[in-house]
Amino acid sequence: MNFSIGTVLDWNHHPYKIVKTTDPTDHGKKVGQFSYHGKVVSGVIAVFEVQGKSPSKTVVLETSTGQYYQANIEANSSQ
Q1: What is the pTM of this model?
Q2: CA distance readout (Å), 25 to 7, 12, 16, 69
Q3: What is the CATH number of the domain that holds 14?
Q4: Structural domain count, the chain
């Protein structure tokens, strides 16, 4: 399962945008997981906190194929 930079995924009732690929050493403890089903790919994604950052703002996503991505929460500008 591979995602493009800029892909937005919903987790924990918030949209997170993938900003870069990353390394497995960049993540801390596991904070959850979710299932993704899209047009091309589907699978389970594990969510990890990022060392030194709040998991409510930035997370590391591990896909079922072993790819790692950093994702930042998207501000909801439509109010």
Answers
A1: 0.85
A2: 22, 23, 20, 12
A3: 2.170.150.60
A4: 1
